[in-house]
Structures are given as C-alpha cells and as structure tokens.
Sequence to fold (77 residues):
Amino acid sequence: MMTIKEIFTFTGINTGNLRYYDSINLLCPTEKTEVGYRLYDESALERLQQIQYFRELDFPLKSIKEITENPTLVYVT
Fold:
C-alpha cells in the first residue's frame, strides 16, 4: 500500500490531483487509516496509469471515468 505522498514521489502526480480524483470517485483509495491517510494498492496504481494515459491524450475526466468503469466501452470523439 502507498500513501498519496509516496505516489507523488513515485509518479510525480500532484497530491491535490489525487485528492480531487477521490472527490469525484475517479480514483478512490483502497482504504483509509484511522487518521485519514489515503492508501492505494497495486490495482489503484494500475488505474492511475490508465488515468494518466487518457489525460495525456486530452480526454476529459468525465470520459476517463466512464472508460475506466466500463473497459468494453468504445469511445469516439
């Protein structure tokens, strides 16, 4: 499990972005500690990689959420 700070160190993704992704249910933490730290497992990191990929292609977050929630979805712009 990794904290937001560790994910930032590992990926360079802004911690504010990770908190925002959580607030819109795009990337929810795997669990939270008693003091509220968000923890992410390998599966969450894989989803984060997908999010980064689609962000690099300039997909809006709403579309990324739809795609990651339904991998069989075909997206055409």
